[in-house]
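Marked as duplicate of an earlier ticket. Keeping the data here for the record.
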Amino acid sequence: MESEYIYHVTTQNEWEQAKMNGEYKPAGFDTEGFIHCSIERQVPGVLDRFYKGQTGLIKLKIEKAKLQRPLLFELATDLDELFPHIYGALNLDSVVEEIVL
Protein backbone atom coordinates (compact mmCIF):
# COMPACT_ATOMS: atom_id res chain seq x y z
CA MET A 1 0.00 0.00 0.00
CA GLU A 2 1.32 3.42 -0.94
CA SER A 3 1.86 5.83 1.92
CA GLU A 4 0.34 9.28 1.97
CA TYR A 5 3.72 10.64 3.11
CA ILE A 6 7.13 11.26 1.58
CA TYR A 7 10.30 12.38 3.35
CA HIS A 8 13.06 14.89 2.78
CA VAL A 9 16.31 15.22 4.73
CA THR A 10 17.76 18.68 5.22
CA THR A 11 19.87 20.59 7.72
CA GLN A 12 18.37 22.39 10.68
CA ASN A 13 19.86 25.63 9.30
CA GLU A 14 18.21 25.24 5.88
CA TRP A 15 14.88 24.39 7.51
CA GLU A 16 15.02 27.39 9.86
CA GLN A 17 15.79 29.60 6.83
CA ALA A 18 12.78 28.13 5.01
CA LYS A 19 10.51 29.01 7.92
CA MET A 20 11.68 32.62 7.69
CA ASN A 21 11.22 32.65 3.89
CA GLY A 22 7.79 31.04 3.96
CA GLU A 23 8.82 28.22 1.59
CA TYR A 24 11.59 25.65 1.26
CA LYS A 25 14.07 25.24 -1.57
CA PRO A 26 17.22 23.26 -0.76
CA ALA A 27 20.73 24.07 -1.91
CA GLY A 28 21.03 22.84 -5.47
CA PHE A 29 17.37 23.44 -6.30
CA ASP A 30 18.14 26.11 -8.89
CA THR A 31 20.42 23.77 -10.83
CA GLU A 32 18.35 20.57 -10.47
CA GLY A 33 14.87 22.08 -10.63
CA PHE A 34 13.29 19.77 -8.06
CA ILE A 35 13.47 18.67 -4.44
CA HIS A 36 14.78 15.15 -3.81
CA CYS A 37 12.52 13.12 -1.54
CA SER A 38 12.18 9.51 -0.44
CA ILE A 39 9.59 7.06 0.69
CA GLU A 40 10.13 5.92 4.26
CA ARG A 41 12.10 2.75 3.49
CA GLN A 42 14.52 4.74 1.27
CA VAL A 43 15.55 7.21 3.99
CA PRO A 44 18.28 5.07 5.64
CA GLY A 45 20.02 4.60 2.27
CA VAL A 46 19.81 8.32 1.50
CA LEU A 47 21.32 9.12 4.89
CA ASP A 48 24.12 6.63 4.28
CA ARG A 49 24.92 7.82 0.74
CA PHE A 50 24.61 11.59 1.13
CA TYR A 51 24.73 12.54 4.82
CA LYS A 52 27.20 10.12 6.43
CA GLY A 53 28.85 11.69 9.46
CA GLN A 54 26.78 14.89 9.32
CA THR A 55 24.98 16.29 12.32
CA GLY A 56 22.22 18.85 12.65
CA LEU A 57 19.89 17.03 10.26
CA ILE A 58 16.10 17.01 10.15
CA LYS A 59 13.80 14.57 8.37
CA LEU A 60 10.67 16.29 7.10
CA LYS A 61 7.51 14.20 6.92
CA ILE A 62 5.49 15.61 4.03
CA GLU A 63 1.83 14.92 3.36
CA LYS A 64 1.54 14.38 -0.39
CA ALA A 65 -2.07 15.59 -0.58
CA LYS A 66 -1.05 19.01 0.78
CA LEU A 67 1.67 19.67 -1.82
CA GLN A 68 1.06 22.69 -4.03
CA ARG A 69 3.66 21.68 -6.63
CA PRO A 70 3.85 18.65 -8.94
CA LEU A 71 5.15 15.41 -7.43
CA LEU A 72 6.69 12.87 -9.79
CA PHE A 73 8.18 9.48 -8.99
CA GLU A 74 11.26 9.17 -11.19
CA LEU A 75 13.86 6.51 -11.73
CA ALA A 76 17.25 6.83 -10.07
CA THR A 77 19.11 4.84 -12.70
CA ASP A 78 22.12 4.09 -10.47
CA LEU A 79 19.79 2.36 -7.99
CA ASP A 80 17.06 1.24 -10.42
CA GLU A 81 14.49 2.60 -7.99
CA LEU A 82 11.77 5.24 -8.14
CA PHE A 83 12.17 8.31 -5.93
CA PRO A 84 9.67 11.13 -5.37
CA HIS A 85 10.66 14.57 -6.67
CA ILE A 86 8.81 17.82 -5.95
CA TYR A 87 8.96 20.21 -8.91
CA GLY A 88 8.82 23.56 -7.17
CA ALA A 89 9.24 25.07 -3.74
CA LEU A 90 7.88 23.08 -0.81
CA ASN A 91 4.93 24.76 0.87
CA LEU A 92 5.56 24.62 4.60
CA ASP A 93 2.03 23.57 5.53
CA SER A 94 2.58 20.22 3.78
CA VAL A 95 5.17 19.30 6.43
CA VAL A 96 3.31 17.44 9.17
CA GLU A 97 6.32 16.45 11.29
CA GLU A 98 9.94 17.49 11.79
CA ILE A 99 12.11 14.63 13.05
CA VAL A 100 15.55 15.54 14.43
CA LEU A 101 18.10 12.95 13.31
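See parent ticket for discussion. The beta strands are 5-11, 23-24, 35-36, 57-63, 71-76, 81-86, 90-91, 95-100.
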